[in-house]
């Protein structure tokens, strides 16, 4: 198998490829009705055919008069004008040739057979003369104008009904892969619904193109070649999705090379490195990697730029914000990396939290706000460094609450109650991580559930210990039942912590409240970590450990009852814990926090959470403890 994948820097690929495209441009023209012109780009200069208004018209409801007749009127010498010397008109009505002025209706006294006025009118007052707005033969728009709603209104008013615009460039989208199935078919194991084609189609539409999604093509050279040939004839730009990397079934570059030429295969970006740039005849054919985020990055950073260049448009710059990085980000020196991040605004400062790096993780784009772009040859950034983020969302950060800490399903339900007025942006780092985030001013609040083994009490001693000097308000959210998740029917008869000896568990990460609880209970029963298989394998959520038990890879896992629901697992209740929110004092006293408190104490919210099972929210929203503020 021949593997050929270079690692060319992005700018070099883009610059070089545009050069290879020579004089090829998307410049076909079509004539359309002006009413279909929204967001279309004019391919002609347009001059008005008609003046607006096209007759002298009244600007007010009132009486048309001759200014001459009104000259001597004043408050002491009112003038009476008989019906022959005036004419009533509404706003917009034509001015008759014998008149040259309009007096507003509220400035006249109606008398029998005429009006009385107490002030003179000046010539052309309250009249919109011909061409006041647009004059016939005025230049309205030049080639290249992207038509907006008022543009279309002005064109119609000035007598333009047909316009010449650039044709929407046609973009072929060819999904490939034996495992890919139509987007609306329920997938079996090993099958992947074609979600990328819709990602591409909608991006192309946003850029002003006309996408066509071709049928899914299996991994087969001849079939792919046939579809590419076909698409090449019918389109201006061809995108082949997947089959771009080094695997033996990756035919995209072979097909392009057979029909035309590949100029670049492999870009020094991550994700997105196996992208392919080639040409068949004069038309560009681009191989976009299969992983959704790799695909998104290649579409945003390369395909969009090629597309808009060929369309003769500038690439709009992304909005940028600068903020403090909450976690270190390491980067491979070989690539320019696109790390998806969440952005939060705490007080006046932005905080930037990096998300997971996997190229398959669409959720890092849907949950993320922007890219932290780490240049090639950079090792990355340290926690606390100020970094710049290029935004891909339009979120209102002033109405986004940041929650960094332990995850609980109640937070998801809280988010549904806060929407659409407020967003809740959560990151799950465990209880201790949450406390540290509050301490460093990186979050508005943190969910925690930390047992103090000495006192048997939850959370308070940790707040006292770690947030002394910082200040914090501890608000109760829920009592929830922790226990052991085991297989349906409890075949191993696991009834208490003691029964974990010699069994395999799925454990939570250090710093997680559930881990602290397990350690506490194990110590009480004198069980050493070495006596429990899997103790060192860490998972970050309740659902993740539940999944391990469900799959049979683990015999048991400590977690909350609600996570077992829907998974058909057995639950052995062991402990009632208190899941609370630590709120920074600044946020606690801000008006926005009231909205959270309102939800916490609402019946509807409490009921919805309790319905998950294993929860009691009788006291949610109550203050448990206040740690003094900074002085
Ligand atoms: N041995 C190597 N394997 C891989 C390499 C490598 O260098 N050596 N590169 C990896 C990188 S990086 C990427 S990115 C991917 C690129 O893969 P391909 O473009 O060849 O695409 P596939 O392997 O066919 O699929 C990858 C992944 O994407 C899913 N996919 C594909 N099409 C769609 C679609 N239309 N909708 C949704 N999802 C789609 C596909 O099912 C796979 O899961 O290769 C790595 N491997
Ligand atoms: O380039 Mo791949 O897209 O790194 O994941």
UniProtKB/TrEMBL annotation:
Catalysed transformations (reactions)? adenylyl-molybdopterin + molybdate = Mo-molybdopterin + AMP + H(+)
Cofactor(s) needed for function: Mg(2+)
Give the taxonomic lineage as stored in the record. Answer: Bacteria, Bacillati, Bacillota, Clostridia, Eubacteriales
InterPro entries from the xrefs? MoaB/Mog-like_dom_sf, MoaB/Mog_dom, MoCF_biosynth_CS, MoeA-like, MoeA_C_domain_IV, MoeA_C_domain_IV_sf, MoeA_linker/N, MoeA_linker/N_sf
Pathway the protein takes part in: Cofactor biosynthesis; molybdopterin biosynthesis
Q: Which family does it belong to?
A: Belongs to the MoeA family.
Q: Name one Pfam family in it.
A: PBP_like
The UniProt record lists the MoaB/Mog domain at: 172-310
Which Gene Ontology terms of cellular component type are present? cytosol
Q: What is this protein called?
A: Molybdopterin molybdenumtransferase
Keywords, A to Z?
Magnesium, Metal-binding, Molybdenum, Molybdenum cofactor biosynthesis, Transferase
> Top-level EC class, please?
transferase
- EC assignment: the record states 2.10.1.1
């Amino acid at each position: 198998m021949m593997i050929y994948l270079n690692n060319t820097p992005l700018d070099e690929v883009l610059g070089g490829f545009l050069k290879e495209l020579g004089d090829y441009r998307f410049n076909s023209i079509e004539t359309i009705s002006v009413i279909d012109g929204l967001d279309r780009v004019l391919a002609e200069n347009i001059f008005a055919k008609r003046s607006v208004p096209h007759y002298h018209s009244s600007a007010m409801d009132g009486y048309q008069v001759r200014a001459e007749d009104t000259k001597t009127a004043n408050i002491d010498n009112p003038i009476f004008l008989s019906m022959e010397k005036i004419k009533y008109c509404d706003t917009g009505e034509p001015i008759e040739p014998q008149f040259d002025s309009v007096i507003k209706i509220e400035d006249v006294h109606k008398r029998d057979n005429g009006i009385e006025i107490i002030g003179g009118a000046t010539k052309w007052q309250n009249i919109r003369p011909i061409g006041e707005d647009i004059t016939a033969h005025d230049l309205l728009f030049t080639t290249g104008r992207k038509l907006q709603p008022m543009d279309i209104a002005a064109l119609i008013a000035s007598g333009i009904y047909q316009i010449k615009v650039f044709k929407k460039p046609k973009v072929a989208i060819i999904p490939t892969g034996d495992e890919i199935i139509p987007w609306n078919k329920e997938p079996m194991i090993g099958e992947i619904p074609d979600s990328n084609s819709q990602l591409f189609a909608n991006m192309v539409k946003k850029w002003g193109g006309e996408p066509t999604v071709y049928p899914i093509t299996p991994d087969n050279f001849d079939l792919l070649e046939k579809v590419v040939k076909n698409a090449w004839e019918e389109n201006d730009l061809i995108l082949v999705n997947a089959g771009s990397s080094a695997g033996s079934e990756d035919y995209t570059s072979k097909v392009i090379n057979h029909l035309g030429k590949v100029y670049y295969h492999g870009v020094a970006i991550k994700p997105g490195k196996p992208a392919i740039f080639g040409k068949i005849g004069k038309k560009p054919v681009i191989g976009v990697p299969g992983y959704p985020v790799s695909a998104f990055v290649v579409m945003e950073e390369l395909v969009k730029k090629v597309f808009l260049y060929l369309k003769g448009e500038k690439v709009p710059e992304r909005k940028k914000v600068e903020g403090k990085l909450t976690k270190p980000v390491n980067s491979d020196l070989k690539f320019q990396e696109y790390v998806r991040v969440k952005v939060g605004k705490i007080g006046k400062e932005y905080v930037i939290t990096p998300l997971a790096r996997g190229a398959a993780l669409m959720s890092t784009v849907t949950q993320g706000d922007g890219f932290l772009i780490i240049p090639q040859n950079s090792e990355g950034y340290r926690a606390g460094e100020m970094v710049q983020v290029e935004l891909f969302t339009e979120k209102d950060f002033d109405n986004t609450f940041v929650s960094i800490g332990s995850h609980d399903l109640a937070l998801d339900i809280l988010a549904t109650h806060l929407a659409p007025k407020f967003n809740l942006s959560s990151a799950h780092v465990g209880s201790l991580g949450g406390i540290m985030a509050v301490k460093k001013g990186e979050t508005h609040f943190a969910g925690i559930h930390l047992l103090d083994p000495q006192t048997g009490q939850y959370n308070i001693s940790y707040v006292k210990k770690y947030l002394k000097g910082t200040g914090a308000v501890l608000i109760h959210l829920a009592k929830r039942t922790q226990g052991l998740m085991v297989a349906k029917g409890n075949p191993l008869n696991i009834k208490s912590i003691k029964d974990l000896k010699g069994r395999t568990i799925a454990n939570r990460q250090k710093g997680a409240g559930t881990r602290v609880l397990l350690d506490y209970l194990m110590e009480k029963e004198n069980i050493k970590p070495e006596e429990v298989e899997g103790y060192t394998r860490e998972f970050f959520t309740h659902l993740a450990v539940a999944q391990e038990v469900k799959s049979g890879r683990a015999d048991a896992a400590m977690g909350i009852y609600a996570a077992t629901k829907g998974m058909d697992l057995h639950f052995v209740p062991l402990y009632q814990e208190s899941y609370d929110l630590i709120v920074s004092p600044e946020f606690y006293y801000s008006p926005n926090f009231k909205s959270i408190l309102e939800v916490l104490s609402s019946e509807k919210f409490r009921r919805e959470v309790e319905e998950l099972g294993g929860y009691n929210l009788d006291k949610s929203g109550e203050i448990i403890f206040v740690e003094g503020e900074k002085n």
